[in-house]
Amino acid sequence: MAKKRMVQAINEGIAEEMARDPSIVLFGEDVEVSPIGDTRNLFERFGPARVRNTPISETVMTGMAVGAAAAGYRVICHLFYGNFIYTGFDAIANQAAKLRYMLGGQIRLPITFMAVIGGGRSVAAQHSDSMHPTLMNLGGVKVVMPGSPGDAKGLIKSSIRDDSPVFFLQAAGRGGESGEVPDGEYVIPLGKAIILRPGSNVTVVAIGSMVKPAQRACDELAKAGVSAELIDPRCVMPFDFDTVVDSVKRTGRLVIVDEARRTCSAASEIAATVTERTFGTLRAPARRVTVEDVAMPYSPILEKAVIPDHLRIMEAVRGLMQ
Amino acid sequence: MAKKRMVQAINEGIAEEMARDPSIVLFGEDVEVSPIGDTRNLFERFGPARVRNTPISETVMTGMAVGAAAAGYRVICHLFYGNFIYTGFDAIANQAAKLRYMLGGQIRLPITFMAVIGGGRSVAAQHSDSMHPTLMNLGGVKVVMPGSPGDAKGLIKSSIRDDSPVFFLQAAGRGGESGEVPDGEYVIPLGKAIILRPGSNVTVVAIGSMVKPAQRACDELAKAGVSAELIDPRCVMPFDFDTVVDSVKRTGRLVIVDEARRTCSAASEIAATVTERTFGTLRAPARRVTVEDVAMPYSPILEKAVIPDHLRIMEAVRGLMQ
Amino acid sequence: MENMRLHSSTDRQPNDAAPASEAAAPAATTELLLAMYRLMLLIRTTEERLAKVQASGALPGPVHLSVGQEAVAAGVCVHLTDRDWITSNHRGHGHFLAKSGDLPRMIAEVFGRATGVCGGKGGSMHVADVSKGILGANGIVGGGIGLGTGAAWAEQLRGDGNVAVVFFGDGAANQGVMFEALNIAALWKLPLILVCENNGFSEFSPSATVTAGEIWRRAEPFGVPGLAVDGNDVVAVWRAAGTAIARARAGAGSTLIEARTYRLRGHVEAEMTFLSKAYREDAEIEARRAHEPLMQARRKLEQAGITAATFAGIEAEVLAQVDDAFKFAEESPWPAVESAYTHMFS
Amino acid sequence: MENMRLHSSTDRQPNDAAPASEAAAPAATTELLLAMYRLMLLIRTTEERLAKVQASGALPGPVHLSVGQEAVAAGVCVHLTDRDWITSNHRGHGHFLAKSGDLPRMIAEVFGRATGVCGGKGGSMHVADVSKGILGANGIVGGGIGLGTGAAWAEQLRGDGNVAVVFFGDGAANQGVMFEALNIAALWKLPLILVCENNGFSEFSPSATVTAGEIWRRAEPFGVPGLAVDGNDVVAVWRAAGTAIARARAGAGSTLIEARTYRLRGHVEAEMTFLSKAYREDAEIEARRAHEPLMQARRKLEQAGITAATFAGIEAEVLAQVDDAFKFAEESPWPAVESAYTHMFS
Ligand SMILES: Cc1ncc(C[n+]2csc(CCOP(=O)(O)OP(=O)(O)O)c2C)c(N)n1
Ligand SMILES: Cc1ncc(C[n+]2csc(CCOP(=O)(O)OP(=O)(O)O)c2C)c(N)n1
Ligand SMILES: [Mg+2]
Ligand SMILES: [Mg+2]
């Protein structure tokens, strides 16, 4: 166990998996020099057959990931910024999410699509979307969003081992903090939430980049005498509703924090489903703390206003407690 | 006023708008021969400069729609089946939905993207998605889903006149029924729901293709003594929450019927937001009747099982009434 | 009930390893030509039956037939083993059969039955038989190109000399993905053969109205060999494909083949029930019918001494095979409703 | 405070209508060369200041500079009026300035201020000035290609002889959208000029490792003229662009110009703070510096008799202009928080 940044944890997880399983291949734009750092040294270690830089051609890349996976390889397709998922979206939505189904189960599609998502660094609208809701609605892909470096390692390993297409989405802006990362074999099952802090007055579900501000909000709420239970779902598709429902049955209140735009967000889905399952027990309507239905602005002052922070989370919790 | 099918109503609406405004241009694959029928005779009437067949090149088509609109034209981009929205998704999500915002309002983007969506005709997974939730989450595009031929005419006209990108999504499978269509100028504002039938026991919100089975369900429920208020939102982005909230405050119960896959669907959004706004009055949790998180199967027997019908809607209503 | 098999995964044709040179272009033996003729006849007979059944209203979904284009599927696929991959488009029955896909289970799929190759979940636009290296027909124009490029990459990694062949239309040649594939195939020297079936139409648009220049030339800027071939001459297709496939197996990379043919039936069956006007002249179809591939092959075989009795025998065999397949499909049960909810994830 | 204007929407250069023939290639007057030099100097001075300011930590977001590539922007844009369109990529300051975009408001945008051309909502990757026909830099590689094709279509419809120019990189030439655009531009004879700035790198990948063949050849299969030009020679760029633009204005259609140049600074400023290893040799950069465009133009001007005093005068003017612009930006207010919620819809 050592302190590492999230990209280092991911890098370690990928390297361990590639060493373990020779059928794993990785490709993407500049994965060799790795501007993000998560694929650093993999080229040197696993060679040019298994680690390949690609041209800027997201359309064929996502199609190739599906084809190579169907033909027997375990594929990691690095798409860099999440917005480029849109560029390669045809083969994601029309092939990756559907091909096994359309073929009546004849193939498996062990693909890990990687991307960094979200705002917080003034890279503006075309590099800052949080598009996990779009992926969640596709039905045939899993969506993983680690909230800490340790979870990132355990989740990248299970994403790679999964036989279905998995989107592994790192928070770009606020995911770089250090955290404890277990050495060696450490695998977290997809679809299992973690209760980061127990509490009795309110359940706070925070996704990906929102885990950190939610932690801070819960700390400050505790000082003010409000006991919040903080849950990081870690994987939003499939979603561990049982853990959240259990918690809400105890607390009677739910706040969901999501960096996606509000309409049809993960937050909306969680609000709808958990409300359905906890109706009698909920003491107040579930609150969603999200980005409003706007693109991400460039100016830091605007970006800060748009992205939920601990203050907005605390405000939402306080609103529920009245 | 005469009885027409939905495609005829849409065709009439487009033709009236093109006659009215010479800055309107229309393009898409085979819009001249018009396999769907909605663009029939427009080429003959408005000529090859304004009505253009395109190659099968969705990626550049959606980008062109944005460029031509920014450069001063009012653009109708026909994308044929809704699943091809994914093929041209880059310029939809990264440009159309964001360019005005990123440019600080320097441009307007009067674009109507047209597509037929949904299942019901055994055209299988790659021709049957209902992807309005994905579009709703983009933030910068409006989404129109007519439930009847008359509304389709009024809505296509206002979609074309709108200065923002609008997706006009026709139900492929079950949208072909006839209905009364007002002659000439008939414009329905975007974002205004219609109460198709008043009722007092339960509010049923049905979207696009789901309006017809919901109507039937309400008819049969009425015979059984259950008074359902049926609302067709007609436009899901922006969504007329006020009308639905008013209704639910009277009925105390809400069922939403949506052909989208359940997770992060329009139904989930409506459930979350309306519940938030009617919390004390809701007597039971909002119910969502949707396609489960599966692709559309080919076999008619499977497709029928997957797509909500009047029976599933009635079952949901009855579940709430207990 | 077993589908005709021209080869198994072990009996690769000797000419597969022929060098990629015009001079060395081999002549097709009469035996091979007869096998290809039989395959084309199987495709033709199957699809004409599908047309009839479609007209009777017995098929749940749309069917796109390749009548007139059979030489492309046959001439290419006789070079392939079960360990090679193909991807196809919405017009995929011919490719499926030429690649040894199971006929009865294909028909059952088109009927939407439980016994279909995809359990009734895919239908005509998605017929696939992965055990035969058929990664499937595809409903997205250009969709098979990315998949095939990925399969070619997988085979390059595996290093067994297997290849991937992508069948796509002239319309699909206008999708950007084709160029992205050509670029990567050139850079990585992928064992990828792009076979563009130019049948004169992109849906209802004549090719020339939507496709600038000549398709085979589109490979040149990438340094990938491109060539056009008479797609109605099964021997010409076989020869061009043989060269390209041998080249790919030898690690020398990709080829783009434009096979020029003609779609004798509609884009989709029953299209004139929903189109407001014709998009081509009947006379054009009639003129093109004179060049259709089966007749041409038959003429060559007659010249090589194949007798009317032999042809009659083949026809009877094929007919029986097709009869059996349709009978199998029609008698097959519908899928269980629960199967709609499986196979989204592994 | 007004930005330098080489032209207004009414004073189109006479050579714009020159016929598209090599023989007729006009010589650049000293006056024109001087104007282009000044423009390049403005771009260079602006961007080197941006680099300095970036290093000081005063810029909120990333900046991609075009130092060494200024001749492309200048040589193309002097042919254009405010009624012509350009689209650009992430490396767009030079195109913006060459197309008469407002310098102070561009800098204010990069600083994220309320006075920015986009109100601080776009930043460096989205600088746009629609009143000058600048449809914007773009953060999506290849994103400007579709937009420019659409703008070209609009100008064809308008029929005033205006054109659209798309500036994009060698990396973007591997996006399928470029081919889709070439196909449509060829079929529709669009007044679209595709200017590929080949600066040797696609992000951190040397072009040859990700781009097969020569980019200018990629237009040929569509029947669109393609040519390569020394992108560091502003006169050569000016001449090639003049021919292409005149051709487009005359209704004769599209051209692809590959301008070969070299990126002297990083892909993005401060890149070595996050890259684990170098992706090119310093010696390579030094060797290329000897061919950078400003020095080349200056040498020509010196030969034509322009004196050191004149150069010094221009330098002082440009410096003052840049100083003013940065001062304007730094003193500008931050945007009001409410502005984050406007402009999603019209
Ligand atoms: C991405 C996409 N766009 C449009 C369509 C609709 N469509 C189906 S087949 C077809 C024409 C295909 O033409 P071509 O590639 O030449 O194949 P052919 O039908 O001639 O065999 C079109 C436009 C589609 N299926 N997918
Ligand atoms: C669709 C998309 N994919 C990837 C990126 C990341 N990216 C930004 S710039 C760049 C390289 C672009 O190279 P080129 O087109 O040659 O332009 P240059 O940077 O050399 O000016 C890449 C890969 C992006 N912005 N958009
Ligand atoms: Mg065709
Ligand atoms: Mg470059």
Description:
The complex is a heterotetramer, with 2 copies of chain A (322 residues) and 2 copies of chain C (346 residues). With 322 residues, chain A is an alpha/beta fold. Chain A has 2 domains: 2-181, Rossmann fold (3-Layer(aba) Sandwich); 194-321, Rossmann fold. Chain A has 13 helices and 14 strands. In chain A, strands 3-2-4-5-7-6-12 form a 7-stranded mixed beta sheet, sandwiched between helices. In chain A, strands 9-11-10-13-14 form a 5-stranded mixed beta sheet, with helices on both faces. In chain A, β6 (142-144), α8 (149-161) and β7 form a beta-alpha-beta unit. In chain A, α3 (58-70) runs parallel beside α5 (89-96), α9 crosses α13 (310-321) and α10 packs across α11. The radius of gyration of chain A is 19 Å and the shape is globular. Chain C has 346 residues and is of the alpha/beta class. Chain C has one domain (2-332): Thiamin diphosphate (ThDP)-binding fold, Pyr/PP domains (Rossmann fold, 3-Layer(aba) Sandwich), CATH 3.40.50. Chain C has 11 helices and 7 strands. In chain C, the strands form 2 sheets. Chain C has a 5-stranded parallel beta sheet with strand order 1-2-3-7-6, sandwiched between helices. A two-stranded antiparallel ribbon of chain C has the order 4-5. In chain C, α1 (30-55) runs antiparallel to α10 (293-303) and α4 (103-110) crosses α11 (308-331). The relative contact order of chain C is 0.17. Chains A and B meet through α5, α7 and α11 of A and α5, α7 and α11 of B. Bound molecules: thiamine diphosphate (2 copies) and magnesium ion (MG) (2 copies). One magnesium ion binds at residues 169-171, 199, 201-202 of chain C.
